[in-house]
Amino acid sequence: MKTKDYILQLIDEGEHEHQDFKYQISDAKKIARSISAFANNSGGRLLVGVKDNGHIAGVKSDEEIYMIEQAATMYCRPEQQMNFQLFKVEGKNVLLAEVAEAQVKPVQAPDENGHWKVYYRVADENVLASGVHVKALKHKNCDEDGALLNFSEKERELLEYLDLHGGITLSGFSKLAHISRFAAEDAIVKLLEMNVITLSYHNGSCLITKSNK
Q1: Which of the ends of the chain has fewer CB neighbours closer than 10 A, N or C?
Q2: Contact (Cβ atoms closer than 8 angstroms) between residue 127 and residue 201
Q3: Residue 21: HSE in the Cβ half-sphere, 13 Å Cα cutoff
Q4: pLDDT tens track for 8-19
């Protein structure tokens, strides 16, 4: 049985890749972006009624649950299922809303202008997924057998570059290999499936780096 001590332990962790604090839920579309980001990663949780600094403010649970369910069903494509638990901590209600990793990716949510976008969770932020990342998420749904470890000349060139320099952007790889952006994206998707590279985000840019696996 999860108790208030469990919630206090979670709060002590702070915000991170799998956890976000929400003082209150006032915008279903905005919360949908958090749901999208967690679902496109490996899942996560919202602690509602908790300020960014970890201070417990409390919530009106019925209203918050309704808004989050609206976000998950009306403003996420495809719809996402949420799991809710309510805790009484320091005399105030804290709502734990858990987001599972999506079985079908990518999960989209509307941006500030109402355009449907794909979000991804990086550290304690929701970021717009890059085009190649979206392509990789879509491709993963279709490929159950994985890919064979058979590298082309351009793919070997990329891996050698990463060994020396650590990371490169998609545009940088396209120029390095003298191939089109489309061909570069296909190569990246293939290498992601092989788990030999990974995508990371720094200062708004998506970097291709060598996987640690």
Answers
A1: N
A2: yes
A3: 20
A4: 999 999 999 999
